[in-house]
Amino acid sequence: MPARLPPLNALRAFEAAARHLSISRAAAELHVTPAAVSHQIRALEHSLGIKLFRRLARGLEPTEAAHACLGKLRAGFAAMAEAVDLVRAHTRVQRITVGAAPSFADKWLVPRIHRFVSAYPDIDLRVAAGMNFIDERAEGSRPDFGGADIAIRFGTGDYPDCKAEKLFSVAAVPMCSPRLLRGAHPLRTPADLRHHSLLHDDTIRTEHGGASWEMWLEAAGVQGVDVTRGLHFNHASLGLDAAIDGIGVVLGYPVLAAADIAAGRLLMPFDFGVPLAHAYYLVSAEVDAAQPAIAAFRAWITAEARAV
Q: Residue 102 CA to chain centroid, in angstroms?
């Protein structure tokens, strides 16, 4: 069983008086009267059975016994202050996990996330990338958040018991490197696609509300393009990277390629896209929507989406 300690206030009064060598300055620091400090020190001396100070005309002089314990006492107060700071920091920090499809996280969310971190330094944000944020559930069923508190989902917006806000609508549009506008078979009209490799993002599947090359070519009134050829990718960002490298033309979402388009790495050779029924939604459980960290992230990301 640990030894019984003297009252904490008495130890604080002793340490402050020893540091200042003055009862009055110790009292000012502790926001008490000099009489209260003197009383605490006398009580501590009585409890310990030793003298802690010699009273001199110019102030106080700690005894050898006082000097012997001051170092560890000050270290103890510093440790307690550090512990209290840790508790306060823990209560200030709010932690949330945001879920998104890998390509959305890579191409859209992560390049902007520094602005959220700067605006909300007390929120510990985690980003969880996974394919379960592309809807594969039964219509009308509650979405799987995959361990996340809030998610950016590509779907219909029909999420029972959830708060869902549309971030932006989506159209499937061909995109390619500027290099494909030059060469032996420059890409000038949709019919010129027959001379180029088609890149397929397999996450854009019609059963998930996406569009296929077949759908786009039919809507554009183009025939004679073999849609069975070309490379297939299981992440949109891989197809976009292949298009940037000039390997072929990818059918994808310009919202994910905004940075590459702005930098001139990609362009949309045709002013035509197939609008999709699905869109990107910000979704959280209705019961969690009012939590401060979730509300802060919702306000931030909707403002970012409006700026696109």
A: 15
Residues 6+ apart with CB under 8 A from 206: 212, 215
Sketch out the chain's domains with CATH numbers: 8-92 (1.10.10.10), 95-168+278-306 (3.40.190.10), 170-276 (3.40.190.10)
Closest to 269 in 3D by CA, of 206, 216, 214, 226: 216
pLDDT digit string (tens) for 134-157? 665 555 566 667 788 999 998 888
Which residue from 120, 16, 133, 144 is spatially nearest to 73, judged by alpha carbons? 16
Q: How much of the chain exceeds pLDDT 70, in percent?
A: 91
The token duo for 3 is 């030894």
**CB contact at 8 A, 282 and 161:** no
Find how far residue 127's CA is from the centre of its chain.
6
Count of CB atoms within 10 A of residue 151's CB?
26
Give the integer Cα–Cα distance in Å for 169 and 154: 10
- The structure tokens listed for 59 are 């102030």
Task: Provide the angle, in degrees to the nearest 10, between the axes of the packed helices 8-20 and 64-92.
Answer: 110
pTM, entire model: 0.66
Q: How far apart are CA 44 and CA 278, in angstroms?
A: 74
What is the rounded CA–CA span in Å between residue 175 and residue 252? 7
Residue 94, beta-bridge partner list: 123
Residue of 141, 153, 155 lying closest to 209 (CA atoms): 155
E strand or H helix that includes residue 261: helix 258-262
Best CA proximity match to 23, nearest among 65, 53, 50, 63:
53
SS3 state at 15: helix
Three-state secondary-structure class, residue 88: helix
Task: Give the integer Cα–Cα distance in Å for 173 and 220.
Answer: 11
Token representation of residue 260:
């590459």
Query: Which phi and psi (to 5°) does residue 22 adopt?
Result: -160, 130
